Amino acid sequence: ALHAADPKDYPENFIFCGGFDWEVKFHRMMMSNSWLPFPGICLCLKDDYDAYLKGVVERPVMGRNRSTLRLAYELGDHYRKNPPNLSKPRVLFLTSLFTTVLQYVSADLAGGFEGMETRISMEPKPWYRGSRLTTLETLLAFKPDLVVQVDGIRAANCGDLPASVPYVGWAQDRLARLLDPGLASKGLPLDLQFAMWPQMQKEMTEIGHKGVGILPPAANVSKMSNATIRQDMTCDIAYVTNVPGEGPRVEDRLGEARRAIASGLKTRLYGVGWKERPEFQPYWYGVVQGADLASAYASAKLCLHVNQDTNAHPRVFEVFAAGSVPLVRRLPSDTLDF
After folding, report:
1. What is the dihedral of CA 231, 232, 237, 241, to 10 degrees?
2. Closest Cα partner for 235 from 321, 327, 297?
3. What residues have CB less than 8 Å from 66, skipping those under 6 apart?
4. pTM (two decimals)
5. What are the strands, taking DSSP E only, across the chain?
6. What is the pLDDT of residues 212-236, one digit of tens each?
7. Beta bridge partners of residue 167, listed in sequence order
8. What is the number of H-type helices and E-type strands within the chain?
């Protein structure tokens, strides 16, 4: 079973089930850890392997489906007996390992809930994948009184959360689920939706979201203001972003990276996805987080920010806080946003 990650980087993601009882081992493995994705590639020394493997894989799929239904009932039953405590709520933040910006935003938001118990939930390892089942397990383990999710919407991301539990969504990207009229129509009275910039607020309201507020971006100055300029990171342009897979947004980021490199200015690329693209490998310097991220900003003359929607973005303010200068494209939304 080869899971969804590069085995050169993550050798643990290659799992071999051998022996006469390999089907039992496989079933036990998939049922014991719901974060494990189902295999993308299966090899079997059987003549009728297609039908055989399909049957082997389907058994834990059905098992997980049964677990999902059971946990959904348990979650609803818990909140029927234990209404949320909103005087001093336990706050759960749902985010993803695959977006550095939203991880930091979630962590900074959690830091603001002083005196309250908070928890941040995301994929534990890079080859793990979230699902309805993993969300249910997280909710039952923590039993939050309030759920907060950047770029989230209850109907799409947390549909099993009972209506009695408030859900806060903060739109920081123009994502299809946030602008889906069908999902917007499923909003509940305790759904609190915010947009990061005015144009997004307008669009979300027009497709049916109720009472969308504005929650402007911010940077945690304490994490950036003490950034040190490192000689091994100095450059003309630093570009910190992830470029996984394909798609219009990724192509847009790749195009701006090509322009920066073609300018002849010393350019350093940071983030996930660059290493797998040969033309960018000479300019890629790893993944930076924490103090290294602050130093990457501070050590560059300019920090490139590419966004199709808004320049009123946390990264822009983080760059300012680190003492550098953001390099952005002029966007139609700039006048309204600033």
Report:
1. -130
2. 297
3. none
4. 0.81
5. 91-94, 118-121, 146-150, 167-171, 191-195, 213-214, 235-240, 267-270, 300-304, 326-327
6. 999 988 778 888 888 899 999 999 9
7. 147, 191
8. 12, 10
Q: Tokens in use for 221?
A: 């100055």
Q: Residue 41 and residue 76: Cα distance in Å, rounded?
A: 37
DSSP 228: P
pLDDT of residue 2: 45
CB neighbours of residue 230 within 10 Å: 13
Q: List, edge to edge, every strand of the sheet that includes 167-171.
A: 118-121, 91-94, 146-150, 167-171, 191-195, 213-214
Using DSSP's 3-state secondary structure scheme, residue 146 falls into: strand
| Residue whose entry in the numeric block shows the structure tokens 């915010």 | 194
Tell me the C-alpha to C-alpha distance, in Å, between residue 303 and each of 36, 235, 245, 317, 320.
Answer: 36, 10, 23, 11, 10
- Token pair listed for 20: 């006469």
